[in-house]
Amino acid sequence: MPTTPEELEQIADAPHAEADDLAGTFALQGNPAPRPQAELDEILQKPGFGVHFADYMARATWTADAGWHDKQIVPYGPLSLDPAGAVLHYGQEVFEGLKAYVHDDGSLWTFRPAYNAARLNFSNYRLAIPELPVDDFLASIVDVVRANARWVPAKEGASLYLRPYIFASEAFLGVRAAAKYEYLCIASPAGPYFPNGFTPINVWVEQDFHRAGPGGMGAVKTGGNYAASLLPKVTAAREHYDEVLFLDAATNTNLDEFGGMNVFVVYADGRVRTPRLTGNILPGNTRSCIMQLLRRRGVDVAEDTLALADVIAGIKSGEVSEMFACGTAAVVTAVGSLTGADFKVELPTHEVSQSVYDELTGIQAGKVDDEFGWLYRIG
Ligand SMILES: *Cc1c(COP(=O)(O)O)cnc(C)c1O
């Protein structure tokens, strides 16, 4: 299983099986009650984010004897879980997030899915969960999207958001890695994150709580990190901040990332910096792609230690011109202001942020040349 961010890049960039060769790995079971077309049309007009769920989901089970088995596409619906199921007590769970798109010619695509496949195993390793083979992950994406093809919204900026996840389902209260796991992939139509255009967010810089600490789980995609981010988020939302930026737990001085997005700093001289992956920061696919896109433009982009004090001083002096957040869900979000217990600074410029957003969403929509080969054809 991959144990470093470099290995995620290698796996993502290696050749992978094509959709037609993987299709059918997850056997389709009929849906007795698919959503009526009129209802679906209404949903796709205004999908929101994560509120409507497509007719089918992928599922598989892992046991020590049989490995991953019972790979199926089944009707979306409630799970049956023993109340002693280990995930409910010790949080042994990992997840992913990626999107499927329909292009103007009706073809179905997703974006760099092998990165997500690799990162799921990067997370599995840290949480002592068994490996899910990359081909099984890719097959589940192909099969779940093909089964839900009519759920992929065609509007610009819209997509079918895919949420693969694994959790410990063994009924056992002892503390050890579980002996039984469930894999699922559900699908949910998503509208453009900013239906009214590119809207900068107001950010609260959290100096009392951290989302992750040295040696912890900050680099992997597991629910526990999100649980740790919610109290600061609730407090900040009360003061009308849109997002929370976390500092490193060891020194409380350097930028780590947002609760669910990575951060970039753009300097007036053109250079761009993002926090280096210290082990507390999630290696984002979007982060990785943005670094490659900027490098192709000839921009001086690098990973570095970014002290909050330097960033604030830079914003005040004009040395820092922009900041943005990035992740699969919102793609790129410009930061409009940064506030903490004893400071408030504003960032009025968003040109670079906007251009990165345009380029990346253009590639995803099939309207900008996909020079890096990130698009993966589903059907
Ligand atoms: C998922 C996630 C990101 C963004 O990763 P992408 O692969 O770009 O979607 C960033 N930070 C955290 C904590 C995350 O969970």
UniProtKB/TrEMBL annotation:
Q: Does the keyword Transferase apply?
A: yes
Q: Which UniProt keywords apply?
A: Amino-acid biosynthesis, Aminotransferase, Branched-chain amino acid biosynthesis, Pyridoxal phosphate, Transferase
Q: What is its EC number?
A: 2.6.1.42
Q: Which residues form the signal peptide?
A: none
Known InterPro entries for this protein?
Aminotrans_IV, Aminotransferase-like, B_amino_transII, BCAT-like_C, BCAT-like_N, BCAT_family
Judging by the UniProt lineage, the source's domain of life is Bacteria
Q: Name one GO molecular function term.
A: branched-chain-amino-acid transaminase activity
- Residue numbers of N6-(pyridoxal phosphate)lysine PTMs: 221
List the SUPFAM superfamilies hit by this protein, alphabetically.
D-aminoacid aminotransferase-like PLP-dependent enzymes
User: Does the keyword section mention Amino-acid biosynthesis?
Assistant: yes
**Which family does the record claim for this protein?**
Belongs to the class-IV pyridoxal-phosphate-dependent aminotransferase family.
Q: What is this protein called?
A: branched-chain-amino-acid transaminase
Organism of this sequence: Actinobaculum massiliense ACS-171-V-Col2
